[in-house]
Amino acid sequence: xxxxxxxxxxxxxxxxxxxxxxxxxxxxxxxxxxxxxxxxxxxxxxxxxxxxxxxxxxxxxxxxxxxxxxxxxxxxxxxxxxxxxxxxxxxxxxxxxxxxxxxxxxxxxxxxxxxxxxxxxxxxxxxxxxxxxxxxxxxxxxxxxxxxxxx
Length: 151
Prior knowledge:
- The protein has helices at about 10-15, 115-125, 125-130, 140-145; strands at about 1-5, 20-25, 35-40, 45, 50-55, 60-65, 70, 80, 90-95.
- The two termini are about 15 Å apart.
- It is built from four helices and nine strands; from the N terminus they run E-H-E-E-E-E-E-E-E-E-H-H-H.
- The longest helix is centred in the C-terminal third of the chain and has 8 residues, at about 115-125.
- By secondary structure, it is α/β, with parallel strands linked by helices.
- The mean pLDDT is about 80.
- A three-stranded parallel β-sheet has the order 1-4-7, with no helix packed on it. It has a three-stranded parallel β-sheet with strand order 2-5-8, with no helix packed on it. Strands 3-6-9 form a three-stranded parallel β-sheet, with helices on one face.
């Protein structure tokens, strides 16, 4: 569960509102970089306002899959941040999400719609998260924490 909290300062009090935050800030150096953030079966709630994410580098990749989103999510959902004009390189995706915050009306027009095959690859523990075999190097006491049945 991700809990969004708001914070006020004197400037925000004068403007009568809290500044929205960002749940993620992922970045890849290039298209060949295999990293990314995947949020699967999560719950987002709180008392602040937040974007799902912002681009930290030009090839950011974030997937929210089957996530319950409360109304804390701002309508536009995503922010290109310093990469405005380069949104075609950014991969921000929401699939099978629920709740008031998952309403895509008002979302940025450059949010990606990936194929089922691409989504399956990104949410599958064996292909994306452990694709390079790093999970096999974990101590046996941790393996059950990261097995596909627990993720």
